[in-house]
Amino acid sequence: PSGDRPSLSHTHTHSARVLEAFSKAPATQLSAMDSDDDNVEETVEGPLDEDNQPDGFCKVTYSSSDRFEGHFIHGEKNGPGKFYFFDGSTLEGNCVDDALQGQAVYTYEDGSSLHGTYIDGQLNGIAHEYDSEGQLTFGGQYKDNVRWGVCWMYFSNGGCLVGEVNEDGEMTGDKIAYVYPDGRLALLGKFVDGEIIEGHLANLKCVTEGKPQFELVPNGPIYSLDKSTSFCISTKCLLPDPYENERLFRFFLTFNFQIRLFIDSLCISAHF
Q1: pTM of the prediction?
Q2: Which of 114, 207, 104, 98 lies closest to 169, judged by CA?
Q3: Over the stretch 221-236, which tens digit does the pLDDT of each residue have?
């Protein structure tokens, strides 16, 4: 399988940012605070209550250069708000009692984004991820900020990886599949962190509630990762790629059909 493999690094960055965002100490004053703790708030712009706590729409800038703009009720984030992190990434959603709740969008510094559901400040439930051009790169679920259950990872070449992720949210297991761009042919078998170890040729029969159903091709060959080097292109050069093999077969069928039509047209013209 080829293509740009979606990375988990974005997911790890997102999880760290969410934990950081909601560990910020409650704002208590307008002036800068002298502290070695990067999470301590630096300045607050907006209305304060009788206890000098943010109350209403405020802009809070932290000593880490992160910034939060949103609604507060007596020092706690409540209502719509948006975090602006020092690296250019953002997190926008709705807060209840100082915790992110419901639908929210995390946008990475490169423009890619994660759209998901948060419960008590953690990503739990259905989520979708997109690259900077808006193309879907991930579809599945999260549990406590980690990918969970059956997930789909989409490649720029049109193919995808699908299967039940492990406890670390990685595409590792004995029933992971790479589905070719035609949406039918697949390699089903053992993968480690998204790379094939051993796979069998299969056909994707259907998808029910996000879970794929495959049918193995009888007596099919076994495929494995075969990385080329500067000394060797392939150790299994006689084993054809099933998707390319089928495309080539269809090309020759179409080509032969067009040649026959051309010959038939010449014969008809010569007859007249």
Answers
A1: 0.76
A2: 114
A3: 888 877 777 776 666 6
